Amino acid sequence: MIQIAEYLPPTPTRLWKLSKQAGVDYAVGGLPTAADCADGGAPWDYLPLLRMKQRYESGGFQLAVIEARPPLNRAKRGQEGRDAEIATVCALLENMGKLGIPVWCYEWMTDFNWLRTNLATPSRGGSVVTSFDNSLMRDAPPTAEGPISEDELWEHLHYFLQRVLPVAEKAGVKLAMHPDDPPLSPIRSVGRIMRSVENYQRLLDLAPSPMNGITLCQGNFTLMTDDLPAVIRDFGRQGKIFFVHFRDVSGTPERFEETWHDAGKTDMLACLRAYREIGFDGVLRPDHVPTVEGDSNEHAGYSSFGRLYAIGYIRGLRQAVYADSL
After folding, report:
1. What pairing do the DSSP bridges indicate for beta strands 62-66 and 118-122?
2. What is the distance between the alpha carbons of residues 129 and 127, in angstroms, rounded to a whole number?
């Protein structure tokens, strides 16, 4: 059965207690802190990862996914020094395997990660959400690293996978590729390749491995297709969905905004039914929630109170779908 998780920072915060009170037992974690590495270790080394994992467990959470990455821009661009970056990923995967942390969520967005043009778009009842309007990006300057083509990104991704997947297979750790956000190319003269259902199939075919799979971020995938439940069933029947971001948007890839979990373009109940149909037994977490009255928008999309609403909504959907097995 699908399990509900929450992204929790590596050191306890108010969100740890709120999530536990909301019935969450699984954590999606980052990388170890500087304090974890005080004896000279790196964040991808065994002892720092052990300390971080123990801290989550002391808070009552099972660490199911690491959703943070060592530096990878040289690897993405095929630059000198990429092999050293790839070596850190291999060390991370080896040590995750030793510690029984089963999934690593990574991405192939070069120079910058997820992008929004407005971090405080008005939404329901005075809440605010993030949004994107590509017309505002057309005159944006190129990144400091300069242009890179989609063909180059595919070439460098293949090089990366050929080196890390054997390590992942030996360690028993699944690689779950997150989509480009937004799923458009190019942005600021930088190609973006993880932006369509077809390109995800290309990823899976590029390096066949039981460890090569998908973070199915619904907010991005619903901008790639008009039938998200069908996409879930297709990749799920291939056994390639390793992790889920449960969120929604309204609009198109060119212009969209995040929504409350119950107010977007997607049939969320149909999606959860599709996960049950394919037998998905991993974790999902809510993502990119509204900022509501009484909470801070300092970290737009990740306010604590908005996450509580999302957790409750997802728990209700799960009860409706899995009622005979809860």
Report:
1. unpaired
2. 7
Give Cα separations from 162 to 105, 171, 213, 242 (angstroms): 17, 15, 14, 19
d(CA 227, CA 46): 42
For residue 266, what are the domain limits? 3-321
> pLDDT tens digits, residue range 197-208?
999 999 999 999
**What CATH number is associated with residue 157?**
3.20.20.150
Residue 139 lies in a domain: yes
Domain count, the chain: 1
pLDDT tens for 200-243 read 999 999 999 999 999 999 999 999 999 999 999 999 999 999 99
| Sheet-wide strand order for 249-252 | 118-122, 128-133, 255-258, 249-252
pTM above 0.90, yes or no: yes
Q: Are 56 and 313 in contact (CB under 8 A)?
A: no
**Which one, of 63, 255, 81, 93, lies nearest residue 168 by Cα?**
93
